[in-house]
Amino acid sequence: MAETPSSVRGFAEAGADLSLVGVSKRFPGFTAIDNLDLDIPAGSFFALLGPSGCGKTTTLRLVAGLEEPTQGKILIGGKDVTNTTSYQRPVNTVFQSYALFPHMTILENVAFGLRRRKIADAEKLAKEALDLVELAHVANRKPSQLSGGQQQRVALARAVVNRPALLLLDEPLGALDLKLRRQMQLELKDIQSEVGLTFLHVTHDQEEAMTMADTVAVMNQGRIEQMGAPELLYELPTTAFVATFLGQSNLFTGEVTGSSATTMTVGVAGVGVAGVGIVVPLDRAQVHRGVVTIGVRPEKVTLHRAKPSGSDRTILGPGRVMDASFSGVSTQYTVAVPGFGDVTVFAQNTSIGDNARPGDEVYLSWSPEHAFGLLDHPSASSGKFVADTDTGSLVVAEREKLEAELEES
How many CB atoms lie within 10 A of CB 167? Predict the structure, then answer.
């Protein structure tokens, strides 16, 4: 993304921190949010990640003021806004559907809220916001004359121009094609860094969350399972849910059979095979005794045509390739290993014609430093999700508010 003009620098006010203190939201028959504590520092890009029904949409609605918590407090910039309406909160939302006025020009769309509130220099501020998203050259066009990516940037400019302390992003890139979505991920991150607002991004897309956010919170059934930097969550998940939702993981369950000052050995016994010791560093394991679940990411596993030598790696096999799926950059293998079930391997395609085929006998290996140990077991994280509240009402509420302002003006 090109450098933002110097006239735009410092355009938006600094973002405010957001705190949810003991927040719960109960609906008849189920609890959507269960005693949630969350602190988002001012000026950060924070992603709330989870599947449908995990509670992320309800959290967004609570922060936006479209739902009232059953209990708990919501603070923005240290001010308690729990009992205020959505219009009284320093919050704006960018939706997946854009919600632009089709009969207005792009400049009029961005300046609309400012003019309604009789803000001085509304047109000048709107032009600066369009400069920020690099769309000054389309200021006089109508939304129908713009691409989906351009419309999304207009929606972002319209939200930023109001100088909200907190900007909510409701899966804003879901309607874009893959290439444009990845481009917009980088541009959104650049814009957030430039204006310094606090961004709360709600999404079910793992790659989107990890690409843009400084901090990711993974939600499951109304609670945050794990929170931290994207790299930390991916490399060192603490629960089976996080390990399998945030990317893929091979998980094995067994009993700790020994330990040293820095590592522990887990005996994973299979049918018809002797117990195999899998070494895990102690500082990468959550539980150090008894029956534990350990894992390794598929891209950390190496596939071998013959049994590898050396004692510095964990070795499984022989196994048999059950499936091989070519995806361009890599090939995904499913290898059935007696006693371990199906193991997934991602192998980078570095040469032509050297890929294994279904039916081939292979061995698998990985470095112990890539293994991790979990707090729970896979069965503990299973369960049916209750459908979350649809974000459609968020879009409707925002559109009705804008249309009401338009009728009054």
Answer: 25
The pLDDT, as a whole number, for residue 255 is 92
pLDDT digits (tens, 9 = 90+) for 326-351: 988 899 999 999 888 899 999 988 87
Distance CA 361, CA 357 (A): 9
Q: Say which residues have a Cβ less than 8 Å from residue 223's Cβ, sequence separation at least 6.
A: 34, 35, 36, 55
Decide if 184 contacts 204 (C-beta within 8 A).
no
Nearest to 136 by CA among 152, 121, 150, 148: 150
Closest CA to 367 of 274, 263, 293: 263
Bridge partners for 119 per DSSP:
none
Dihedrals φ, ψ of 201, to 5°? -105, 120
Of 128, 165, 135, nearest to 151 by C-alpha is 135
Distance separating alpha carbons of residues 190 and 401, to the nearest angstrom: 29
SS3 252: strand
Between CA 347 and CA 303 the distance in angstroms is 7
Q: Read out DSSP for 356-394?
A: --TT-EEEEEE-GGG-EE-SS-GGGG--PPPPPPPTHHH
Q: What is the DSSP string of 53-102?
A: TSSHHHHHHHHHTSS--SEEEEEETTEE-TTS-GGGSSEEEEETT----T
Fold for 240-381, please state it.
OB fold (Dihydrolipoamide Acetyltransferase, E2P) (2.40.50)
pTM of the model: 0.80
pLDDT at 218: 96
What would the pLDDT profile of 57-85 be if each residue is shown by its tens digit?
A: 899 999 999 999 999 999 999 999 999 99
Residue 382 CB neighbour total at 10 angstroms: 10
According to DSSP, residue 247 is labeled S
User: Where are the domain boundaries for CATH 2.40.50.140 in the chain?
Assistant: 240-381
Instruction: Enumerate residues 6+ apart whose C-beta is below 8 A from 143.
Output: 98, 100, 101, 102, 104, 106, 109, 151, 154
User: What is the Cα–Cα distance from 220 to 52, expressed in whole angstroms?
Assistant: 9
The whole-angstrom separation of Cα 279 and Cα 267 is 9
List every span in the chain annotated with CATH 3.40.50.300.
6-221+388-408
CA-CA-CA-CA dihedral for 391, 395, 396, 398, to nearest 10: 130
Domain 6-221+388-408, CATH: 3.40.50.300
DSSP assignments along 219-236, one per residue: EETTEEEEEE-HHHHHHS
Q: How far is CA 41 from the centre of its chain?
A: 17
